[in-house]
Amino acid sequence: MERLMTFLLAVPAPLWGLTGAIVGAGAALIAATIANRGSTERLRLQLAHDVTERTQQRQADLRKEVYLDVAAHLMKANALLGSLALIDVAKRPPLDELNGVLVSAMRVQMVSSATTASAAGTLLTCFEATVRSLLESAAPAQKKRVEAEIAREHFRGCDVETRRILSEIALIDESGAENEPMRLAKHRSYGAARDRQSLAEAQLVARETELLALQQQYAREYLPHFEAFGKAMSGLISAMRAELGMPLGMSSPAAENARWKQAGSELGEFVETVGRR
Length: 277
Description:
Elements: H1 2-10, H2 13-82, H3 94-111, H4 114-175, H5 180-243, H6 253-276
């Protein structure tokens, strides 16, 4: 102990000052290092939080875009499926529009939660079966539409021919020329043309009546698909609204099912009423 005290007393005073400065600088350096390390960690956490928030926002924006897209396609598809027996598929191919539902619903499955993806899968299964069945149901009406259009064109041709002969008879009468054989020949032609026109008109009326009956039959066959597809749409819409934090309102499954059931009943009553008229 005495040796240690002797050694410490032998150390020059300036050296003690230098030692104190070194110790103080070391302590400051350690404190700065600790502070910098804490600041770096906070910055890293903040950057990670910002990246997470931006990623979540991008995902939310993408979901909104995808959900709006599938909703738009579903609205178009629902209207198209109800009118498959009414439209001219040669001018408006239905699959071009219906495929949009398949693509948009599959996109929903890629960006949504498990619940919404499951609802989209249920919709796809129901939609594919609905489209396949309704295309088959609409086929007779589409075939009859072609027959009615052919009958309509034939009637128009007969009408044009009848009017042409009638105008020729009028010209003969106006000329005052004594050409009884020509006049009689034209009247015979006119009579034959009128008979062809009457027959063409009867055929047209028959084709259009048959077409109307097939369209009403399609409407009746559409009803169960209307309710089933409506429930599948309701399930997907409810899931998408819940995922986006939107209130369910009338889009809750129970409310939507009741609405689709009521709509199906009203449509069925309408079809039956029209069919009896």
